[in-house]
Description:
- The complex is a heterodimer of chains A (296) and B (319).
- Chain A is an alpha/beta fold.
- Chain A is 38% helix and 23% strand.
- Chain A is built from ten helices and nine strands.
- Chain A has a six-stranded mixed beta sheet with strand order 5-6-7-3-8-9, sandwiched between helices. Chain A has a three-stranded antiparallel beta sheet with strand order 2-1-4.
- In chain A, β6 (184-188), α7 and β7 (215-219) form a beta-alpha-beta unit.
- In chain A, α4 (119-129) crosses α5 (134-148), α5 (134-148) crosses α6 and α6 runs parallel beside α7 (196-211).
- Chain A starts with a helix and ends with a helix.
- With 319 residues, chain B is mostly helical.
- Chain B is elongated and about 80 Å long.
- The interface between A and B is large, with 65 and 50 residues.
- β4 (95-100) of chain A pairs antiparallel with β1 (46-47) of chain B, so a sheet runs across the interface.
Amino acid sequence: MGEPRTGQTYTRVPSVVVDDLHVVYRVLGPVASSPVAALKRIVTGRRSGAIREVHAIRGVSFAAYEGDAIGLIGSNGSGKSTLLRAIAGLLPASRGTVYTKRQPSLLGVNAVLLNDLSGDRNVVLGCLAMGMSRSEVRAKAGEIVEFSGINEQGDFSSLPMRTYSSGMAARLRFAIAAAKSHDVLLIDEALATGDAQFRRRSEERVQELREGAGTVFLVSHQLSTIQASCERTIWLEAGLIRMDGPTDEVIAAYEEFAKEPVKKPSARGGPPAAPPGTPAVAPQTRGKHRAAPADA
Amino acid sequence: MTWGQEAARSWRPQPNDDTIMMPPVVVPPVETPPSLADLANGYGLIPAGTRPSLRAYTRQLWRYRHFIFSYANARLAASFNTARLGRLWQVLTPLTNAAVYYLIFGVVLDTRDGVPNFIAYLCTGLFVFTFTQHVVLSGVQAISGQLGLVRAVQFPRAALPIALTLTHLQTLVASIAVLAGIVVLTGDPVTIDWLYLIPALLLQAVFNTGLALTVARLGARLTDLRQLMPYVMRTWMYGSGVFYSVAVFAEHLPPVAATLVRANPMLVYIELARDALLVSPPLASSPMQLWVLAVGWAALACFGGYVFFWRGEPEYGRG
Lengths: 296, 319
């Protein structure tokens, strides 16, 4: 795990650069409680908060490099998922820019495929939607179903997806998205679902994807997952970067912040956490990102 | 110091080095940290969410043609998935429709309107119009109803409304088979003219694709359109001579309005289909005029709708 990174130290190529990003959601807010109230609102011309703005990201800047796996942590509503969506180009920025080389792809538990269709058909559709050719899809379909492990409990891949448990559906989605080597893979809590065995398998897959010179962003509340797969972590709070640096340092500070200490991640089994302070790379990365907004 | 960072630092000074004698013209804007933007530019990264050129977009769309076809088929399969009779409903739905209208117009009201084979005349108009109606009604939700998919995967969004038109085109093929049965059963002969149905319906499909693209973009922003659209379509249906010959009310209209009614694209496609299937049905315009109008409308709607949809590409998925 540690070796390839030292080799990459001198060939770091940025894959995602986020420059002073702001994202504002326009929410069609709580609709009037009754037709009469709705009419009253229209007649009086009062907006009554029908359209509300939520400033979810308030100026985030950083650069991610090929081969990086970056964890995103922060309390609920701190803007982690929004940041991923903005990087994926799925949410337009209100200010600032996200620079990417190729289209990043977002893999989240919210990604809905067609629930009325069988798992097999969803695999084909999902792969085609990611831009695979027909022959690639044919070659990969079996592998994907096998990786997702949905057939371990019987022949589920021929059943409609609406019959799946939420864990199975999330596993299938992860398997589909992980089938392609992405330049930039954005994972939103996907690893939090699934049993211990699947989690280990997906961690291995994330590791493989990284070695394929892709960049991985991982949003999770499971600090152990982040420690296992990311050597750099960005801590978001209220739409701003609170801290950006080596995973162990950031997580230590985050746990301090969260007051009630989260279950000690080091106590668990499984793959060892990324070694702290691996040569040169991580600390300097942090230094740069800290410096960047400052010299403006 | 990594190589990337070094590059990042050296990138900014470079343009200034040559122009060192000049007054500091190249002042980067204060609010953007220049090192990040230049780092991105230096490695050829491009800003996310920029709209590709129309040509590049079309090329992308072409690469996604397999996705479009399987998505269209998948939607069709999914729509009958929970019904026991499954895809048999593809044929049963137009049959039931025809039965209902036969009951009302053929038996109860005994409408004739001077049309020799009124039931076949009515069903042709109805089935052709239903094609467009379904495309428009589901087109409004082509983006807004698939936000999960749109927010999960990046692909040219025009794939969704186009796939939807293909889905309904397949439904149309089934209802045309039913229609052919009705025409023959009600006493009209099978003629070589039936072949005109193919180009007529293909032109209508192209026209519908344009409509689907247009309403998909509108529906993505104006979510209330979904509630409004059924009434728009119903009004359009009454103005397209589905239930009666347009001549009935065109003669009561001022000349300008009558011309507009005759140019109505839905009337054009319906009349072309009737002209192909039935023996000398009453027509509002000559067949030649109808064909010209059909091609014109299809080209206009498809090109206009495509450009209109493409211009909104970065917005989709915002919700």
